[in-house]
Structures are given as structure tokens and as C-alpha cells.
Amino acid sequence: MREAASRGALTVGIANNPNTPILDESDHPVRLDTGAEPIAGSTRMKAGTAQRIALNLLSSLLMIRLGRVYEGLMVDVQATNAKLAKRSENMLTHLTGRSAGEVREALSHAEGSVKLAVLLLQGCRPEEGRRSAPGHQFDPHPLPCRLPGSTLQPEPCRLLRSADQFLGGVTS
Prior knowledge:
Blueprint: H1 2-6, E1 12-15, H2 21-25, E2 28-31, H3 46-65, E3 69-70, E4 73-74, H4 82-96, H5 100-109, H6 114-122, H7 126-132, E5 137-138, E6 159-160, H8 163-166
Parallel strand pairs: 1-2
Antiparallel strand pairs: 3-4, 5-6
Helix pairs in contact: 4-5, 4-6, 5-6
């Protein structure tokens, strides 16, 4: 904790007991008051479970704030195996309503990036999408392709430049 702070890192300390050094030394102390364990000496029950839940919540909120989650989908999934590749295809189908073949082709051109594949299926040129998608939030709606038989032409890419825009101005 001290080393991270000395290098300028934001520090968060999570503990179940008051007055612990990690809470005193962190920028953002989080105390989880779980009380005594039902079995003395067994910190895996209440305290460990509370910390696990807190870390899951913290990491999930971080992914949302970073724009890696859209409509409850982890759109920045790294498809490193067949199961995750299929999940990417399913997300893209859900978001765009496109066929399995179109989805696979878009993911192939997007090198597995769900965000970039959405932009490609909207009609963005690959080079435009590659310049725009990395590191930026995006709003893939409206997607004209979601309307069966639609004669609408895909709209230009609508990119949001910050997490605040993605979250509608919510900053806290």
C-alpha cells in the first residue's frame, strides 16, 4: 500500500476491523462491519464473503464506468477461447439483430472486438471504426438493422468521448 501510494497510485483499503493500518493508510478506506464470525478464527465465512462481494461490486462498477459494459453486456470481452467467442457472437446478435454469418464476418474484420464489430455493422468504414473505437465509449443505438425490413441507411458512428457522457452525466 505504501509503495503504491509513493508511486502516485490511488489506494483503496478494504478491511473488516476498525483501526487497521490498511484503512489508515489508504486514500479510500472501506470498512465492512461484519461482526464476529460464527466459528471463532474462521475469517472465510462472514468477513471473507463480505470482502469478496465488495471486490466483485467494485470491479463491476469500474467496468461500467470505463464503458466496458453496455446494456448489461461486457462488450470489451476478450474472446480467448471458444466459449467467449460464442458469447461475443451472441452479444453482437443481441445488439444488432444481424444474422450469425454477418456477426461472424464483422467480428473477424474487427479482430474480435464487439465494440468495433457493432460500428462496422452500422456502416462505419473499418479504418474509421478502428480510429474511433479504442478507448472511447460508444452508443450503438439506434441501430437501423434492428428493424426487420428497414430501408434506413446506417447512421454515422455515434461515439461518446467520456464515461460521463456514457453514463448521462453521472459522476458520483
